[in-house]
Amino acid sequence: MQVLSRFYVAAILAVMALVGAGAAWAGIGQPSDWQLGPQDAATPVAEDILQFHNILLGIITLITVFVLGLLIYVVMRFNARANPTPSRTTHNTLLEVIWTLAPVLILLFIAVLSFKSLFFQLNTPKADLTVKATGKQWFWSYSYPDSKFEFDSIMLSEKERKAKLDKDPKADVPRLLSVDNELVVPVNKVVRVQTTGADVIHAFAVPSFGIKIDAIPGRLNETWFQAKREGVYYGQCSELCGKDHAFMPIMVRVVSEQAFAAWLEEAKKKYASEETPAAVTVAAGQ
Ligand SMILES: [Cu+2]
After folding, report:
1. Does 178 have pLDDT greater than 70?
2. Check: CATH 2.60.40.420 for 129-275?
3. pTM value?
C-alpha cells in the first residue's frame, strides 16, 4: 500500500512539474519542444484568449474532480456488500433543480466571458497601419495599401535554408516556417489585417497574436493585432487549401518604429522594381 501511495505522490508531483514548466516551455512566436498549452501571447487579444483558456481549464478540472468524487462515493457506498438492501427512492425535486440549474449557470458564465473575448477580437480599434494578406495556392502575398506595394512571401526550401545556415549557423530559420520575404510591422502599433483569397479559401493564423481568420475569394475579412514585443512570429495557413497547404507559412517580423520606417522606404523601392505582371513572365517562357 505504501509503495502504491508513494507512486501516486511521485506521479502527481511529475504532472505538477510538467504543468508548471509548461509556461516556460511554450515558445513565443513558434512552437517549442515538449510544449504544453498554447504559444505565449504577444498581443492583448492573445493574452485575453490565454486567460480564457486558463479559466476554462480550471472549470473543467473542478467538474471532472467533482464527478470523479461522486462516482467513487457511489461505488464505495452503494455496492452490494456495503448496501445489501437498496432504497427504492426515485425523484428528489431539490436535487433535480440543482443539477439542472448548476450547468446552465456555468454555461452562462462561460458564454458571457466568450462573448466579451469575441467582441474584443472583432472590434478593430483605430488602426495605425493596414496590411492585406492574400492567400494563393500556395503562398501569401502581402500588400501595404497606404504605401502602394505588394510582394510574395514564399517558404524557404530545404536547400535555401541550408544555405542560410551555412552562412550563419545561428540564423533562426525554422523548417517549414521560414520564408523569403516576411511581413514586417512596427511594435506597439495597431495593425489591421485584411485577408482575401485569390483562388480557394485559405486562413491567416498566427498563434502568438491570437488571430485566425479565413481568406475567402471575393470577400475581404478583417482582424487586428498589436504586437507588444519585437521579434519574429510564425503562423500557418489554417484552412485545407490544396496539396501544398502545409507549405505556405506566415512569418511576421515585429520591429521598432524607426526600423520599420527604414524598411518601408527600402521595400517601396525594392518591390516597385519587381513589378512584373505574371502574364509577361509566362509569355517570356520563364
Ligand atoms: Cu492555404
Report:
1. yes
2. yes
3. 0.80
The residue among 173, 136, 172 whose CA lies nearest residue 151 is 136
Q: Domains of the chain: which residue ranges?
A: 25-122, 129-275
Q: Residue 183's closest CA among 209, 220, 217?
A: 209
Distance 286 CA to ligand 1 centre (A): 25
| 259 C-alpha to ligand 1 centroid (Å) | 30
pLDDT digits (tens, 9 = 90+) for 111-148: 999 999 999 998 999 999 999 999 999 999 999 999 99
> How many whole angstroms from 190 Cα to the centroid of ligand 1?
25
C-alpha cell at 57: 481549464
Alpha carbon of 56 to ligand 1 centroid (Å): 30
Residue 197 has pLDDT above 60, yes or no: yes
Q: What is the 213 CA–ligand 1 centroid distance (Å)?
A: 12
248 C-alpha to ligand 1 centroid (Å):
6
Domain 25-122 has CATH 3.40.50.970: no
Count, in order, helices (H) and strands (E) of the chain.
6, 10
